[in-house]
Amino acid sequence: MSDIKTRVQGLDPNVKARNIKSLAKATSSIYETLAVITKRAEEISTDLKQELHAKLEEFASTSDTIEEILENKEQIEISKFYERLPNPILIATEEFINHELSFEYKEREKTAEE
User: Fold this and answer.
1) pTM score, two decimals?
2) Contact 96/40 with Cβ under 8 angstroms?
3) Which of 16, 28, 33, 98 has a 20 to 30 A CA-CA distance from 104?
4) pLDDT grade, residue 1 (50/70/90)?
């Protein structure tokens, strides 16, 4: 899978109205569709958060004094870049619409027969 940041550069960060019935065709249930999209959005959010924290840790200073706070232009640019990225739920929805998400069902336990 390619880098998420490069794939979403052209993605519109604004929320759009969607036809929920057309989204639910792949799973035959609105709730299952939303569960798939939500799970992927959580994964994207976690990945982006960890990546951002890793990049910002490079700029962390070990001193605890207030006087030594430095403004770092590169750090500010990194933060602004991540702020401009679309919301993870929008990214996951686009992935679902473009059939870039794969999902499978776990076998349901047969409790009625046992």
Assistant:
1) 0.73
2) yes
3) 16
4) very low
